[in-house]
Design goal:
Family: Belongs to the FPP/GGPP synthase family.
Bound molecules: geranylgeranyl diphosphate
CATH class: Mainly Alpha
Radius of gyration: 18 Å
Pfam families: polyprenyl_synt (PF00348)
Protein name: Polyprenyl synthetase family protein
CATH topology: Farnesyl Diphosphate Synthase
Oligomer: single chain
Mean pLDDT: 91
CATH superfamily: Farnesyl Diphosphate Synthase
CATH architecture: Orthogonal Bundle
Number of helices: 14
Number of domains: 1
Helix content: over 70%
Distance between the termini: 16 Å
Shape: globular
Largest sheet: 2 strands, antiparallel
Keywords: Isoprene biosynthesis, Magnesium, Metal-binding, Transferase
Cofactor: Mg(2+)
């Protein structure tokens, strides 16, 4: 393991402990339906690498914020992510039966409960974030605005719609990137931005560089995801049937070849790292996270 990879693993582990405790707090209050609450907890607390909350914490650190202010936004991005995975796995979408090595939420519970759990997690993300009085009200409003944009039709949901419309079609590289910038990139970008917004008075230039980092990393995440789908263990433990292969989705390796996709990944990583050049050691976790995202094996 390289030093950068060890730093990322250690950072992810520290983040996981802090963020999971916050997720527990946020999901501990009883709701009217015990079954719904169980499905929500099952979907959020049952694994996951916590890449987005870790990026949120790493961006906050790069911007000078290491306190607990960042936990609510980190938790909110993970709740949105969990909701998106539940809905993405539904029969009407990817129709997957396994996620994180265990039954997807609609298999473990039922389809209606899974839809409601996703809906409820999305609402909870905004409630948890907007109700966090550790963060100044104006910054919280900016975060809610950012997260709503990244989650909805301007971002993730819009990307998912393009994805569904593109099944069986040949996309150009530009079209593929548009889809991924929305579908997965927008939430990764929001994770970084929300983290930075927890710090007071971050210069515009630093925010711009963090945005460039997040955009490159969002695409790199997807290129590596596509490579893992054909080369790695995602096919074994992740989503074996009914999804990408069967639906003939456009992918980077299909468009560029495996070697071309790897080159593209290296270029995106270089661009992400270059955008952090003006930051000092406080951005080391962000640097390590970029290396981790492109080197991850699941
Ligand atoms: C259905 C509204 C709606 C949106 C779905 C993001 C998304 C849009 C679907 C996810 C489907 C998917 C598997 C996309 C590939 C990239 C991705 C988001 C992988 C899963 O993210 P990880 O690897 O997952 O961070 P863990 O399990 O570690 O949290």
């Amino acid at each position: 393991m390289t030093d950068q990879n060890k730093l990322a693993q250690d950072f992810l582990e520290t983040c996981r402990v802090r963020v999971d405790a916050e997720l527990e707090r946020c999901l501990e209050h009883g709701c009217a339906s015990e079954r719904l609450q169980e499905a929500m907890r099952y979907s959020v607390l049952g694994g996951g690498k916590r890449i987005r909350p870790a990026l949120c914490l790493a961006a906050a650190k790069a911007a000078g914020q290491t306190g607990d202010e960042v936990l609510a936004p980190a938790c909110a991005v993970e709740l949105i992510h969990a909701y998106s995975l539940i809905h993405d796995d539904l029969p009407a979408m990817d129709d997957d039966e396994l996620r994180r090595g265990r039954p997807t939420t609609h298999i473990a519970f039922d389809e209606a409960t899974a839809i409601l759990a996703g809906d409820a997690l999305q609402a909870l993300a905004f409630r948890w974030l907007s109700g966090n009085d550790k963060i100044e009200a104006a910054a919280r409003l900016a975060m809610v605005h950012e997260l709503a944009g990244a989650s909805g039709h301007y971002g993730m949901v819009g990307g998912q719609a393009i994805d569904l419309e593109s099944v069986g079609k040949t996309l150009s590289l530009a079209q593929l990137e548009t889809m991924h910038r929305h579908k997965t990139g927008a939430l990764i970008e929001a994770s970084v931005k929300l983290g930075a917004l927890t710090a007071p008075a971050v210069p515009e230039s630093a925010l711009g560089n963090l945005g460039t980092y997040a955009k490159a990393l969002g695409l790199a995440f997807q290129v590596q995801d596509d490579l893992l789908d054909i080369e790695g263990d995602t096919a074994v433990i992740g989503k074996p049937q009914g999804s990408d292969a069967a639906r003939a989705k456009p992918t980077y390796p299909a468009l560029l070849g495996v070697a071309g996709a790897r080159e593209h990944l290296a270029a995106l990583l270089a661009s992400a790292q270059e955008s952090l050049r003006d930051f000092g050691p406080e951005a080391d976790p962000l640097r390590a996270m970029a290396d981790y995202v492109v080197a991850r094996t699941h």
